[in-house]
């Protein structure tokens, strides 16, 4: 059964339960009024001095007793309906959770399949570029770190970070420095990824939405999968775990630095230690 159908059934059951509870409350009110009438009839009968008054009190007592019995019987009936609908609601909610879990699993598998295809395609493209690159520029320049980022984050964070890394003696592949007028963005990125030891990913809301950052991310995962030791160094920049998780579950499982608590100096110092340890 589809999730939309289950949601519709759950809503219908919840509406039904609300309606039954209102009816039960109404019957409880009738029950209380009937008990009150019975008490008045009994009091009237006890204080009666004439036969007609006694007869009147008895009629009132009998009428109130019928109302009481009817209200109590209706409550029993409604309570059974409430139990049945509550059980039905619990079952449908359980079915919904299972259906949603199955849908999430299918979605995750589909995303993994797409990512694997994208990685395979990019790997093939990189290998082809290497074959046709006769000037050996892939092999000439090596970098300590490749910065993957969204252009929207340049001014407030990435540009100062790149300059700080360079000043610390860390060879940094930064697109503003490496991609010239008329050069292929795709080939430049692929070269940078191939020749960089670490890949620093500035994860932000802008990063999660852009084509080129996702292209870089696919290449980074491919590099990480074929390199001894981890190459991915995530930095969370004004972004939440839930937002990152929607893009890639693997990224949320990696230890990351966060610009909310780590300064540029902290990041540079940590990366410097990693780079120096490999020299």
UniProtKB/TrEMBL annotation:
Q: Which UniProt keywords apply?
A: Coiled coil, Hydrolase, NAD
Task: Provide the reaction this enzyme catalyses.
Answer: NAD(+) + H2O = ADP-D-ribose + nicotinamide + H(+)
Per the database entry, which stretches of residues form a coiled coil?
24-124
**InterPro entries in the record:** TIR_dom, Toll_tir_struct_dom_sf
BP GO terms, sorted: signal transduction
Source superkingdom: Bacteria
Q: Which residues form the TIR domain?
A: 141-278
Task: Provide the E.C. number(s) assigned to this enzyme.
Answer: 3.2.2.6
What is an example of a GO molecular function annotated in this UniProt entry? NAD+ nucleosidase activity, cyclic ADP-ribose generating
Q: What is this protein called?
A: ADP-ribosyl cyclase/cyclic ADP-ribose hydrolase
Species assigned in the record: Sporosarcina limicola
Its organism's taxonomic lineage begins at: Bacteria, Bacillati, Bacillota, Bacilli, Bacillales
């Amino acid at each position: 059964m589809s999730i939309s159908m289950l949601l519709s059934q759950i809503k219908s059951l919840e509406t039904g339960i609300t309606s039954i509870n209102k009816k039960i409350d109404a019957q409880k009110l009738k029950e209380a009024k009937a008990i009150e009438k019975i008490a008045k009839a009994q009091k009237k009968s006890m204080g009666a001095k004439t036969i007609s008054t006694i007869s009147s009190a008895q009629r009132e007592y009998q009428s109130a007793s019928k109302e009481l019995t009817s209200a109590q019987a209706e409550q029993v009936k409604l309570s059974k309906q409430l139990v049945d609908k509550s059980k039905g609601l619990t079952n449908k909610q359980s079915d919904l959770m299972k259906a949603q879990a199955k849908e999430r699993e299918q979605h995750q598998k589909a995303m993994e399949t797409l990512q694997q295809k994208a990685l395979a395609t990019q790997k093939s493209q990189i290998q082809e570029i290497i074959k046709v690159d006769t000037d050996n520029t892939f092999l000439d320049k090596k970098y300590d770190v490749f910065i993957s980022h969204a252009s929207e984050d340049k001014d407030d964070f990435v540009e100062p970070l790149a300059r700080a890394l360079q000043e610390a003696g860390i060879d940094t592949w930064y697109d503003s420095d490496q991609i010239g007028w008329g050069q292929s963005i795709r080939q430049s990125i692929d070269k940078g990824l191939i020749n960089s030891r670490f890949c620093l990913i500035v994860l932000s809301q802008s990063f999660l939405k852009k084509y080129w950052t996702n292209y870089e991310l696919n290449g980074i995962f491919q590099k990480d999968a074929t390199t001894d030791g981890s190459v991915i160094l995530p930095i969370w920049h004004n972004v939440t775990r839930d937002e990152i998780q929607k893009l890639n579950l693997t990224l949320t499982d990696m230890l990351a630095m966060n610009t909310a608590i780590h300064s540029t100096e902290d990041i540079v110092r940590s990366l410097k230690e990693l780079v120096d340890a490999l020299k």
